[in-house]
Amino acid sequence: MMDEAGAKAWLRDAFDVSRETLERLEAYVALLLAEAKSQNLIAHSTFDSVWSRHIVDSAQLLSFADTSDPSRRWLDIGTGPGLPGLVLAILGCQVTLVESRGRRVTFLYEAAETLDLQANIRIEGKRLETVETVRHDIVAARAFAPMAKTFELAARFLGKDGMWILPRGKSVEEELAAARDSWQGDFQTVQSVTNSEAFIVVARNVRRRK
Questions:
Q1: Given phi > 0 = left and psi -120 to 50 = alpha, else beta, which region is 191?
Q2: Which candidate, 113, 119, 112, places its Cα nearest to that of 92?
Q3: Between 179 and which of 24, 72, 131, 147 could a Cys-Cys bridge form, CB atoms 3.0 to 4.6 Å apart?
Q4: Which residues of 167-184 are buried (b: 16+ CB within 10 A; e: fewer)?
Q5: Across the strands, what pairs with 31?
Q6: Residue 36 pLDDT > 80, yes or no?
Q7: C-alpha–C-alpha distance, residues 10 and 56, integer Å
Q8: b/e per residue, 101-112, with b = 16+ CB within 10 A?
Q9: DSSP-H helix ranges across 49-193
Q10: pLDDT, average across residues 1-30
Q11: How many CB atoms lie within 10 A of CB 42?
């Protein structure tokens, strides 16, 4: 497991994170931990490892995307307190955050204002099924639904060249096998940098089987 000092060092090395960006990430962590005392945003057991368990765990998704075009738009479904969406926005991405739980939506708006991220994000405080179909380049979902259900609900937001970047747990192969019953595409499974039992599924050309 990566410790907190190692997590910050990884961020600096992987993305050449500036001092200003690191300070904004630190401000987000402070907001997250403060709000987590009054609502269940992250597991209490991860309070002392928030940088590795949540910040790096979110930021690593950027490693799989083409960063040469800053206009590429992410869709983060079931973002909760902004994981990974707010972290990606702090790192310079354009992100739409979808979250249906009212108190978490309020936190997202407050965090976006405090961190001055309004230009980078759009917040959809509603169920994904009711969000207007707008094309995005990348769909991320850290803790939303099984993979097959995620494809079913979110495929309409991606064009033919879009990609999926989906953090998963140790049962990733079983989940991927279940998804392949009704979906086909080009799937790559990569081990997370933060946990040997966590993985990221990177998928392209995903389409329903005929």
A1: beta
A2: 119
A3: 147
A4: bbeeebeebbeebeeebe
A5: none
A6: yes
A7: 8
A8: eeebbebbeebb
A9: 50, 57-59, 85-90, 102-114, 147-154, 172-179
A10: 92
A11: 17
Would you give the DSSP letter of residue 121?
Answer: E
- Residue ranges making up the domain that contains 57: 4-208
Residue 208 has pLDDT above 90, yes or no: yes
Q: Are strands 136-140 and 158-168 parallel, antiparallel or unpaired?
A: parallel
Tell me the CATH number at 50.
Answer: 3.40.50.150
Tokens of 11: 């961020």
Which positions ≥6 away from 147 have C-beta within 8 Å? 166, 168, 175, 176, 178, 179, 201
The distance from CA 198 to its chain's CA centroid, rounded to whole angstroms, is 14
Structural domain count, the chain:
1
The CA radius of gyration of the chain, in Å to the nearest whole number, is 16
Query: How sure is the predictor about 51, in pLDDT bands with cuts at 50, 70 and 90?
Result: very high
* Distance from C-alpha of 48 to C-alpha of 51, rounded to nearest angstrom: 8
The predicted pLDDT at position 67 comes to 73
pLDDT per residue as tens digits for the range 112-166: 999 999 999 999 999 999 999 999 999 999 889 899 999 999 999 998 889 999 9
Terminal-to-terminal C-alpha distance of the chain: 42
* Amino acid identity for residue 18 in this structure: S
pLDDT at residue 205 is higher than 90: yes
